[in-house]
């Protein structure tokens, strides 16, 4: 048996040696037309071997025993070109290699395996292109016949390699310079444009060969700059060909989180400058993409943030889940998220600039992105940092995005010792977007609502209210300009500063007395508001403030579409005033530049009455003309509070409000 086996092996070796001797005497350039035809037929592209094709022999250093005596064929081909498909815009060539060298293990041929050892490419140039229709130049026709032969590469190296990637849909045109280090690791230098932004970067990664090996942790160290965003990563990717595990430390810095959407498809709001650092773990399989940004921390503007976010694309539609917490949330940074912050110093191409005379944000919602990803994220701000004019303590919300429908349910603020609870839904799948909002205010304390007003510090009054609104529009300004619904609020059985009341009523005598001798509290019988909003115009159906000394009524309207004010404030005193200039006030102008003043016509008429009494009685008569004895009257609070306590109503989004409707009890 041993003799037979030895004889067979000797015969095989002899055949190999004879074949190698024959190949060494053949001019391989004569085979180039045949090779070019075969490759061209298989790829459906033009293929040319413009340079010399040669064969030499080398002894394998990795073999042992008698196998070391058998030389391996070493092939060298110069100036190889593979063409592009007809639709490509990057030129006629997809790939060109100045020189390629490789050796073949002859023993593996006996097992129908083409085993390439030490593949070396000199000055390879490769262009990968994807057009707006999604066609890729690296897609080749699939062979209908299945080959019994297999193919493997033991090692790969390249010098002065160039890779260009063009994606018309993403407006990307990137060029990478690739070189192999002595330890077979790869150095990358990248530059170009992405989404109309300048891109540059560098990376140091493992050997190209390890991309195909299983169980290998492929090292990655990279830095990428796109516009004002910088991303650095340092870690490993296991089984790169079929990723099973990613574990990298990821740092991100940028001008706005919204700029990350074109890079990775993660939908985030526009923010001030930000930076985050954390650990990304997960898988990168084509049908098993799941990444978790664990225990990250960072800053957005002047606010801190931290938490864990998970991006999951295992079921087709990407979903972002997680929880984010800010220990100290700066109100100005939160305003920037909804477009109410300061204008960015650098306006991006295609962005709508906020008009200087507008307050409500006009930047359109990017609803086309809302259908690209689902979201289920909870956000909390434990402490809100703001000016003394904003008595907001904390914030928590649950953000949901499903098939283009955005919900903030709930959106809760701690305000002046009370709570402001909001349920907001915007359907971005409609054009224009349709929105519905319910708001409930409970236990908002007046003395905390106006913390800087000295005379309000002893006030015990509270505000409770409800609002129900619907609208259609593709920006916050457009939604306000097409809003319909009602806003109701009441203050009952509290106290307010007499100084504030007399200031509203413009009772000059009481203002002077109060400022000189202190501020006493005035019993508040009630304040009741019922604001009707129809097609963006807000009209007070009821706006009355009643105290033991005076009543104040508000009439007119506020146009949310034009951002204009046209209100009259009508005070009416109940008792004797020392110096009563109880003329109506007006509030006019715009949200940006309001104008508040006194109805001068009414004051002129009252002053004229004083002059008519004659010169002798002028001092006394003039004083009497400015003094008013208000008739005693029953407080209107019972009926007003009952009306204001009825639940507000709103029509479906996109429909105009009716003049009246049925109500249910809502405000306590």
Summarize the structure in words.
This protein is an alpha+beta fold. Helices cover 16% and strands 46% of the residues. The protein is built from 13 helices and 31 strands. The chain has a 31-stranded mixed beta sheet that branches. β22 (418-427) and β23 (434-445) form a beta hairpin. The longest helix has 23 residues, at 2-24. Residues 1-16, 502-518, 576-581, 606-634 and 660-667 have low confidence and may be disordered.
Roughly what is the average pLDDT, rounded to an integer?
76
Largest sheet: 31 strands, mixed
Separation, N- and C-terminal Cα atoms: 102 Å
Helix content: 10-25%
- What's the total helix number? 13
How much beta, percentage-wise? over 45%
The radius of gyration is 39 Å
**Overall SS class:** alpha+beta
Count of beta strands = 31
Low-confidence stretches: 1-16, 502-518, 576-581, 606-634, 660-667
Gross morphology is: elongated
């Amino acid at each position: 048996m041993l003799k037979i086996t030895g004889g067979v092996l000797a015969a095989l070796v002899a055949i190999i040696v004879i074949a190698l001797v024959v190949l060494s005497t053949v001019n391989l350039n004569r085979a180039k037309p045949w090779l070019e035809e075969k490759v061209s037929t298989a790829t459906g592209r033009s293929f040319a071997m413009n340079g010399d094709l040669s064969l030499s022999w080398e002894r394998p250093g990795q073999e042992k025993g008698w196998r070391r005596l058998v030389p391996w064929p070493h092939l060298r081909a110069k100036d190889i070109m593979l063409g592009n498909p007809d639709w490509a815009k990057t030129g006629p060539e997809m790939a060109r290699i100045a020189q390629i060298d490789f050796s073949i293990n002859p023993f593996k041929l006996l097992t129908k395996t083409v085993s390439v050892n030490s593949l070396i490419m000199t000055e390879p140039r490769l262009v990968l292109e994807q057009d707006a229709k999604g066609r890729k130049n690296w897609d080749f026709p699939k062979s209908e016949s299945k080959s019994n032969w297999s193919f493997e590469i033991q090692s790969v190296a390249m010098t002065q390699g160039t890779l260009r990637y063009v994606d018309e849909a993403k407006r990307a045109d990137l060029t990478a310079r690739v070189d192999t280090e002595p330890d077979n690791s790869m150095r990358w230098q990248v530059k170009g444009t992405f989404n109309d932004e300048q891109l540059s970067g560098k990376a140091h990664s493992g050997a190209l060969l390890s991309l195909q090996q299983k169980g290998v942790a492929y090292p990655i160290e990279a830095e990428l700059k796109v516009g004002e965003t910088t991303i650095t990563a340092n870690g490993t990717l296991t089984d790169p060909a079929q990723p099973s595990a990613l574990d990298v430390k990821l740092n991100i810095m940028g001008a706005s989180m919204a700029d990350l959407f074109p890079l990775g498809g993660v939908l985030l709001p526009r923010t001030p400058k930000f930076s985050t650092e954390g650990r990304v773990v997960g898988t990168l399989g084509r049908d098993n993409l799941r990444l978790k940004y664990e225990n990250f921390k960072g800053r957005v503007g002047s606010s801190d943030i931290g938490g864990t976010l998970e991006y999951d694309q295992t079921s087709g539609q990407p979903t972002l889940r997680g929880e984010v917490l800010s220990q100290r949330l700066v109100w100005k940074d939160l305003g920037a998220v909804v477009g109410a912050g300061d204008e960015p110093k650098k306006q991006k191409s295609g962005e709508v600039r906020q008009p200087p005379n507008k307050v409500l944000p006009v930047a359109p919602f990017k609803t086309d992105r809302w259908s690209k990803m689902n979201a289920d994220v909870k956000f909390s701000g434990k402490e809100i940092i703001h000016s003394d004019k904003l008595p907001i303590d904390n914030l928590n919300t649950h953000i949901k995005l499903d098939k283009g429908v955005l919900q903030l349910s709930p959106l809760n603020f701690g305000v002046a010792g009370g709570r402001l609870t909001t349920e907001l839904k915007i359907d971005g799948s409609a054009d224009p977007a349709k929105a519905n909002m319910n708001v409930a205010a409970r236990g908002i304390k007046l003395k905390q609502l106006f913390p800087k007003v000295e005379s309000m510090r002893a006030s015990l009054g509270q505000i409770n209210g409800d609002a129900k609104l619907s609208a259609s529009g593709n920006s916050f300004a457009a939604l306000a300009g097409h809003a319909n619904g009602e806003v109701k609020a009441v203050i009952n059985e509290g106290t307010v500063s007499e100084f504030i009341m007399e200031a509203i009523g413009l009772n000059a005598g009481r203002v002077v007395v109060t400022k000189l001798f202190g501020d006493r509290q005035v019993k508040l019988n009630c304040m009741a508001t019922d604001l009707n909003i129809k097609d963006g115009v807000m009209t007070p159906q009821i706006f009355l403030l009643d105290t033991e000394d005076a009543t104040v009524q508000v009439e007119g309207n506020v146009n949310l579409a034009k951002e204009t004010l046209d209100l009259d404030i009508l005070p009416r005193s109940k008792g004797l005033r020392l110096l009563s200039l109880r003329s109506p006030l007006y509030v006019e102008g715009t949200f940006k530049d309001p104008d508040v003043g006194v109805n001068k016509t009414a004051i002129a008429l009252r002053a004229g009455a004083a002059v008519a009494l004659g010169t002798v009685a002028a001092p006394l008569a003039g004083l009497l003309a400015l003094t008013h004895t208000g008739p005693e009257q029953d407080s209107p609070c019972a009926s007003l509070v009952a009306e204001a306590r009825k639940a507000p109503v709103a029509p479906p989004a996109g429909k105009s409000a009716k003049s009246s409707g049925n109500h249910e009890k809502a405000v306590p």
